[in-house]
Amino acid sequence: xxxxxxxxxxxxxxxxxxxxxxxxxxxxxxxxxxxxxxxxxxxxxxxxxxxxxxxxxxxxxxxxxxxxxxxxxxxxxxxxxxxxxxxxxxxxxxxxxxxxxxxxxxxxxxxxxxxxxxxxxxxxxxxxxxxxxxxxxxxxxxxxxxxxxxxxxxxxxxxxxxxxxxxxxxxxxxxxxxxxxxxxxxxxxxxxxxxxxxxxxxxxxxxxxxxxxxxxxxxxxxxxxxxxxxxxxxxxxxxxxxxxxxxxxxxxxxxxxxxxxxxxxxxxxxxxxxxxxxxxxxxxxxxxxxxxxxxxxxxxxxxxxxxxxxxxxxxxxxxxxxxxxxxxxxxxxxxxxxxxxxxxxxxx
Length: 348
Ligand code: SF4
Prior knowledge:
Blueprint: H1 4-17, H2 27-31, H3 38-48, H4 53-66, H5 70-74, H6 78-85, H7 92-107, H8 116-120, H9 127-138, H10 147-156, H11 167-177, H12 183-197, H13 215-219, E1 236-246, E2 251-255, E3 266-267, E4 288-297, E5 302-312, E6 322-324, H14 336-347
Parallel strand pairs: 1-5
Antiparallel strand pairs: 2-3, 2-6, 4-5
Helix pairs in contact: 1-12, 3-4, 3-9, 9-12, 10-11, 10-12
Bound molecules: iron/sulfur cluster.
Iron/sulfur cluster binds near residues 197, 198 and 210.
C-alpha cells in the first residue's frame, strides 16, 4: 500500500538536506527541469557497488572527464579502462562496464533504454542497478534497495528477520513506500537518509523525518537492526608474487586471464593462490624473498602473498609476462593487492 504522506515527509527533508554528489542533479535543479544524464547515473551506480562514496568520487571525475559520454567509453581501449579502474576493486565490474557501454553504443545508438526491462537486458545491469537508473534518470517508480535502504526499512518496521533472509521482506516494505510522484528524488532520499541519519551505528534519530513513524525508535531497538546471519569465517590463501626488474628499470608484468579474480588486470606474475602454492617463477633469476608479506582481503578469502624480487640482465627472456619500460609503468594502474606487493618491494 502506498503511503504518500510518509514519502512526502522524506522528500521534504531531501529538498533541504540532499547530499551534493558529482553524479547527482539535486532537488532544486531537478525542480527547474534539469534531467540527470543516464550515463552518469549508470556509471556512478556501477562504481558504488561494494564501494563507498568518498572512494568513488575521484574515479567518477576521472572517467567522466576522459570519457564524457557512453559512446566515448565504448570506444576506449580495454587496457585503458582497466588501468583507470585499478584500485576500485571488483574488477568484473569494469569488464561489464565496457561490455554494457558497447551494447548501448552499438545496439541503442548511444542512448540508454528508458524502461526497467530495457535496462535489465544490458550486460552487468542487475535488478538493483536497473531500478536505480530507471528511478533516478527516468523517474520510473522502481523499487531501489541497497544496504542503506535495507537498514532504514528494517528499523522503520522493527523487522528482526536476519539478512539475507530478510531481503524480500525489506524489498516489499520499500516497494510499498515508493511514491508515484518524484520517484527519482525519493530513491535518492532514502539512500541519503540511510547514509547520513539512519547510519549503522548511532543513528541520529533526533534529526530523522521518519521518527514519529519509526517502530524501532519506539521500541528502542535501532542499534540491533538490521539483524544479520552470522558470517562464515573467511579462509586464508597463500601465494607468491615475483617482482622482476631489468637492469634498465623495466618491470616484468603479466595480464591476468579475463575470467576469474582480478580478470583482465595487469599484475605481477605469480603462483596459484591456495593452501600450499608451488613456486612458479616467470624467469630464471636469483630470487630474494622479502621478510614481510603483502596481505589483502577479498570478498571470500584473505590472501597472504610472499613477495620475491630479482634483478635480471637485458638479454634474459621471460617465460611469462612482458617487460614494461620504466617510463610506461605506473603503479596506480595495478589492482590494490599488486600495488601492496610493489610498495613492500620498494620499501626494502
Ligand atoms: S528514527 Fe532513527 S532508527 Fe528510525 S528511521 Fe529514523 S534514524 Fe532510523
